[in-house]
Design a protein that fits this description.
The chain has eight helices and five strands. It is mainly alpha-helical and 238 residues long. It has a domain at 24-182. It is elongated. It starts with 10 loop residues before the first helix and ends in a 7-residue tail after the last helix.
């Protein structure tokens, strides 16, 4: 009708509509969170299923494969070796202080233990396992290093791997940062863990990257890391 005016909703109706809108947004938020969790769980299941195949492909040595399975089962059993018990507080403090200094959000995810942790450099966020061993400490330090020292756009090259993507240069840069920053020392056990991890990427590396992986993971590479840390005045262990 001409000249008719639309009636304004009453206060209780406005309040009711606001509650409906708030409930709708809450449901959408919860649904989005569930989808993120489900995708993460599916990704971890895929990584876990491919773990054995990855080891068999990259580690031809039966001893190296046995060592990796040993650490895998230790992590999943939430076990700590006797000689590492006193180091746990040092490692936890290092991860916490480094994340705070760099402004990185750290999410501790028990399901990451023994499989793959994750890093999102653009979001400055990492998912790491609980710190229970040198394996989990190195994994956590490695993910922080992905955010702290990503490779530049020119050298960043993604390759298909395990149904996902991998940049070998990113992995090398991150592990090099771990060798520099690990506390209280860089040990042969740390070096063996790094070697096991890097060798899983060797198949996907360029010829130059393969040479770098071989050099870094060798006994000579360990000696060079120790020498570099000594020159920087850091504590070392053989």
């Amino acid at each position: 009708m001409d000249g008719a005016t639309t009636a304004r909703p009453s206060p209780w109706m406005r309040d009711y509509l606001r509650r409906l809108d708030r409930d709708r947004r809450q449901r959408e938020h919860e649904a989005a969170l569930r989808a993120i969790r489900e995708r993460g769980a599916a990704r971890r299941r895929r990584e876990d299923a491919s773990h054995r195949l990855d080891i068999e492909r990259a580690d031809r040595s039966k001893l190296a494969a046995a060592q990796r399975y040993h650490w895998l089962h230790l992590e999943r059993a939430e076990a700590t070796l006797p000689d590492e018990v006193e180091l746990l507080p040092i490692w936890e403090r290092d991860i916490t202080e480094t994340a705070r200094r760099l402004g990185i959000e750290v999410c501790v995810v028990p399901d990451c233990a023994g499989t793959n942790a994750s890093a999102w450099a653009s979001l400055r966020r990492v998912e790491i396992p609980p710190i229970r061993s040198s394996w989990s400490y190195c994994a956590a330090r490695h993910e922080l290093a992905h955010v702290e020292r990503p490779c530049d756009r020119q050298s960043h090259k993604r390759r298909a791997m395990w149904g996902g993507w991998i940049c070998v240069r990113c992995e090398l840069n991150a592990w090099l940062r771990v060798t520099e920053a690990a506390v209280p020392s860089w040990t042969k056990r740390n070096h063996a863990l790094m070697a096991q991890a890097l060798r899983t990427y060797r198949y996907y590396a360029t010829a130059d990257e393969q040479l770098e992986i071989d050099r870094l993971t060798s006994s000579l590479g360990f000696a060079q890391v120790v020498l570099d840390r000594l020159r920087q005045g850091k504590d070392i262990a053989s």
